[in-house]
Design a protein that fits this description.
Layout (H helix, E strand, L loop, with lengths): L1 H18 L4 E5 L3 H5 L9 H14 L3 E7 L2 E6 L1 H13 L13 E6 L6 H13 L3 E4 L2 E4 L4 H10 L6 E6 L5 H7 L3
Antiparallel strand pairs: 1-3, 2-3, 4-6, 4-7, 5-6
Helix pairs in contact: 1-3
């Protein structure tokens, strides 16, 4: 069953990317190029795999089937589906590591109120797991551009107003940070 779950998550990603802000997508079951591009949907049993993956997504409330038009299925991502997509995208999130360092430091500064302490802890843990380093309690440092990734994380944890992203060319302990990041 995990195999179908994996294929279903690939379908969900395609829905998320293709549907964009509208959240609605017509998927033609007979069009091999769309779903074959994400892998796992090749071969003679392609139709069965696609239907099973879509049924899995529907049964779990990740998509809502809006209707059928010939060989096409019109589906809409639900709130649960969008939430799962967020989780998938943050699990797959990686901070970039450029071949050449531009000699700028990225500082992530946050002051999250106590009522959101769980979000603060999760955000800090996520920063650590991504490879940034704590400079002070609520100040993290990273040597490569990561603005988009930090914006995604702060939105995910609903702390947009509490997080500031800065780029600077001077940090007092520059040598220590260069050593830490192998620069």
């Amino acid at each position: 069953m995990k195999r179908y779950t994996s294929l279903a998550m690939k379908v969900l990603k395609v829905l998320g990317v293709t549907a964009g802000t509208v959240g609605l997508l017509a998927v033609a079951v007979t069009v091999p190029n769309l779903l074959a591009a994400i892998g796992g949907f090749a071969g003679p049993d392609r139709h069965r795999k696609i239907r099973r993956a879509m049924t899995y997504l529907k049964d779990r409330g990740y998509v809502k089937i809006e209707g059928y038009e010939g060989e096409s299925i019109r589906m809409r991502l639900t709130r649960n589906g969008k939430g799962i997509l967020k989780r998938i995208s943050t699990q797959e999130l990686r901070l970039p590591r450029e071949p050449m360092w531009d000699k700028k430091w990225r500082l992530i500064i946050f002051d999250v109120p106590n009522k959101k302490s769980k979000q603060r802890q999760a955000f800090a843990m996520h920063l650590k797991n991504l490879g940034s380093r704590m400079a002070q309690k609520s100040v993290w440092i990273y040597p490569y551009p990561c603005h988009d990734e930090i914006m995604m994380l702060r939105k995910l944890y609903d702390i947009e107003q509490c997080v500031t992203y800065c780029e600077t060319s001077f940090v007092e302990d520059d040598e220590r940070w260069r050593d830490y990041f192998d620069l």
